[in-house]
Every structure is written in C-alpha cells, then in structure tokens.
Amino acid sequence: MNNNFDIISWFFERLFRYRNRCNILVFNYLIHFFCYIKGVKIGKKVVFNGFPVIRRYENSDISIGDCCRFNSAKNSVPIGLQRRCTIVTLRKKSEIIIGDNFGGSGITLLAAIKIKIGNNVMIGAHSMIFDTDFHHSDPNKRQDRTDIPARPVVIEDNVFIGANCTILKGITIGENSVIGANSVVINSMPKNSIAIGNPCKIVIIKNWNLPAT
Q: Is 135 a catalytic residue?
C-alpha cells in the first residue's frame, strides 16, 4: 500500500514540476515581449512563471536586473498563490529598480516615488511594498490627489523578507537582514538585523559570516 502511495506522490510531484516548466517555456518569451513594448527594462535570464501585472506610468522607469524570477502562476510555489506579481509605477518620474538574483512570489510593488531593491533579495509570497499612503491621513485633504505623502523605500543587498509582509513608505532595510513572515515594517531596520512582528521589531543583530567577495 505504501509503495502505491509513493508512486502516486512521485507522479504528482513530477506533474507539478513539468507544468511549471511548460508554463515558463510557453509564456516567458511572450511576457518579455510585452515588457519590451511597455518600456520595461529587463536583464538577462529573467524568468516569469505565470503572467505578472506590470504597468509603467508615462515617463517613469521599471528596471529588472539579471537572473531574477517572478512566480505568478497559482501553483508555481508549494504555498499556492492567491494573486499575481504586481509591479506598478503610479506617477511620472517614479522608479522601481530591482537588482540581480531577485526572487519573488505573488508580490506587490507600488511606487509613487521610488522603490529600490538590491542584489540577492528574496521576497516571500504575497508580501507588499508601498512608498505611498495612497490617501492623506488628514480628512480635510483626503480627496486631494496632488498632496499624498510618499517617501522612497530601499531594500539593500541580501535581504530576505518572509511571506505576507508589508513594507511601508520611507523604509530602508539594511543589507543581510531578515524580516519574519506577517510583519508590518513601519521603521527602518539596520543591516544584519532579524526582525518580526506588527509593528516589526528587531529580535537580534547577527554578525553573519559571509564569504569574501
């Protein structure tokens, strides 16, 4: 009996892998073409598993580095995705800059000014990064779309952000840091920190033994 279940498990595991490979093989070049005609700059060996939502506001910039991967297909990761990767600039002269070796699943990046992500950054499923409040906190100004608070967000190199996190405007997360799942980051984090919670707080500052470059 166990052998039968092992065979069935093996079959479905292979089916999962081959389906993802087929999605990438069939649609990846098409997505690259759509990005090209939208004016999105894409580096080498960028992989899209499933169709992302990418919208570039006029006279804004979206730039993606080399060897990045974006998972948007529902079954592209074991956790399962409830939404696609969304990368959107909201105003003229706004920027989204993603470095090399980035990985994200069902993530949302919305920039009114600037979101800058360094190299070797990983962002877990359904996490969101905003550099704007979208609406003014002052009820007298809430209908005024010209004066919405916004400040740049910077994610430095080698950062790992867990699933279901929210990174708000004006935040810098220092290099080599880890943000635990389900965190809401309202204050900047120094490099080498491990932080978690709502609001997100530092648990430890760790001296990582990283190889020399």
A: yes
